[in-house]
Amino acid sequence: MDLEQLSAAVEGVSQTYAERFNIERDTTWFVLKLQEEVGELTQAYLMLSGQARTKGKSPEEIQADFRKELADVFCQTLLLARHYDIDLEHEIEEKWLRWTKA
After folding, report:
1. What gap in Å lies between CA 20 and CA 6, rounded to an integer?
2. pTM
3. What separation in angstroms does the CA of 38 have from each of 15, 70, 93, 101?
């Protein structure tokens, strides 16, 4: 699956979620939802690194939570890019991968 296919699939899931819970996905929502997910990733990282209480979770559960929150941040980033019609593959090529050609 390429990035565009992944983005389209994630968009479908997000639309279904919004319809089910009566959420208006406007510009503000896309940015604030990304911020929420980054906060959850930060919390999971702090637990993973031993800098926060574990809330009774096992090391395996903490690792799984970290992986899931990282996926949430990635998917929410895809949604934000899609909302603004940004070609992430192009932007990554221009910003990051151009250094591989040096």
Report:
1. 21
2. 0.92
3. 20, 8, 24, 31
